[in-house]
Specification:
Rossmann fold, 11 strands, 451 residues, alpha/beta, two-stranded parallel sheet
Length: 451
């Protein structure tokens, strides 16, 4: 559980004490909510907020819009986009709940809580259009990934594992599936340029022509990113080639390109497959061996890569239950909000922009269902079992990699740490898991049996 933070204020406590908010005791649901509210008076900590969020979720799942509206009224008096971490997180979850409820009953959007701000205001507006999504410059993106080690941890662990796996290889081909626009590769290119045996004869990076429409978004094309990487590589004396998998605008089209001929693979190349925050965006039909994730991994295994690295956030947000997703969301995504609190002012534009991107994730997790809900994160343990089922064997991280990650974390706040869990390296904040990193090789026995 996260550290509990008091978020009570005279306004919010007064709102809770208002008789109009204490739901009629004639129903069991109303009675339980009344008890929850009375139990929170004077102490609006994380546990209390979570109870209110779950009551709202329960009301929405049972299509009780009136009860949901009443609970959201209370939550709106607690939530604040410029408050403490719990208040800021609550404001985004409330925004997602309003977005969801507005599709059930449009009038929910227009209610005014009286004592607090209107949830349909900028604090908790209901939807984010593509126009609202901020496009970053390359420089801004670099600052974005450096802010906290949420992405850099994965870069560091993966690059170190890749570097170890391709020692002595003269030709390297990286098949890159990630959401951060190749920000990972300058560090690896620099290391390859300095390796004792000299730079490789060739380094190729291949990326799909499309990516999930999720933050961070860049204001330059993928081709421009490739040109910039090429320029950097020349300064490091690393022969470089950048390829884009064309006609990969859908999963089916991408799969059709995952073969040696389409990828122009050479037999003497060491193939590396990099999956950074990627697998979660492939649909996963529970219990189906033919889900998009499993099919993708099967195709990758058939390419027989030297190594595949898989990095993602260590939480399970794939449940069909709204209440379960809210609980997990509240007890997991407090981490970036809390870590930013340690070194950025409450009104920092950089902080609010970073939190805005987290908020888009929350809105998708809670506000949508079916094909519209693309955030379907699974835990590191579940992802590892999926990799084993797909015919991969764990490739443990060496002590050198562990040392490099620890050095990286020394550059950040003292709350960040790292631990080993089975085959994973896990980034932690105040002891709580946040991001996992794993490395895998094809199970050659399985490949031989199939052949």
């Amino acid at each position: 559980m996260k550290t509990e933070v008091r978020v009570g204020s005279s306004t919010s406590i007064a709102a809770l004490q208002s008789p109009s908010l204490l739901i009629n005791n004639t129903t069991s649901q109303g009675a339980s909510l009344t008890g929850a509210l009375r139990g929170c008076l004077g102490s609006l900590d994380g546990a209390c907020i979570e109870k209110l969020l779950l009551h709202c979720a329960s009301a929405l799942e049972s299509n009780d819009v009136t009860l949901a509206q009443q609970v959201m009224w209370v939550l709106n008096n607690v939530a604040s986009s410029v408050g403490d971490p719990n208040q800021r997180l609550t404001s985004w979850i409330l925004r997602a709940l309003i977005s969801r409820s507005s599709r059930i009953c449009p009038s929910v959007n227009s209610f005014n809580g009286g004592g607090g701000s209107n949830p349909s205001s900028s604090n908790t507006s209901t939807s984010t259009t593509a126009a609202e999504r901020r496009l970053m410059t390359v420089t801004e993106l670099a600052g974005y990934v450096d802010l906290i080690p949420w992405h850099r941890f994965g870069y560091c662990a993966s690059n170190s594992a890749i570097f170890q796996a391709i020692q002595g290889c003269s030709k390297i081909h990286i098949l890159d599936f990630s959401i951060t626009h190749c920000m990972q590769w300058p560090t690896l290119i620099d290391a390859l340029g300095k390796r004792p045996e000299g730079p490789p004869e060739s380094l190729r990076v291949t990326v799909p022509s499309c990516r999930p429409l999720v933050p961070p978004l860049l204001n330059v094309s993928i081709e421009e990113v490739g040109l910039r990487l090429g320029n950097f590589s020349r300064f490091r004396d690393v022969p470089f080639e950048f390829n884009v998998i064309e006609n990969s605008s859908s999963f089916e089209l991408l799969l059709s390109q995952l073969n040696p001929t389409s990828l122009n693979l050479d037999d003497d190349e060491a193939l590396v497959v990099n999956c950074q925050n990627w697998l979660r965006y492939l649909s996963d039909d529970e219990g189906s061996s033919n889900s998009a994730r499993n099919t993708f991994l099967t195709m990758i295994r058939c390419l027989n890569p030297r190594i595949i690295v898989v990095v993602d956030e260590d939480s399970d947000l794939s449940s069909p239950s709204l209440s379960s997703r809210i609980t997990t969301c509240f007890n997991y995504l407090w981490i970036p909000f809390d870590s930013l609190e340690t070194f950025l002012p409450k009104d920092s534009n950089q902080r609010m922009e970073y939190e805005f991107d987290i908020g888009q994730k929350i809105e998708n997790i809670i506000g949508f269902e079916g094909v519209q809900r693309i955030e379907r994160l699974e835990s590191g343990v579940t992802a590892s079992q999926r990799m084993r089922n797909a015919g991969f064997l764990s490739s443990p991280f060496c002590e050198e990699t562990v040392g490099e990650v620890k050095t990286l974390l020394d550059e950040h706040a003292s709350g960040w740490g790292m631990k080993r869990e089975e085959e994973m390296l896990v980034l932690t904040w105040k002891g709580h898991n946040s991001v996992f990193a794993t490395a895998w090789v094809p199970n050659q026995t399985g490949l031989l049996l199939e052949d």
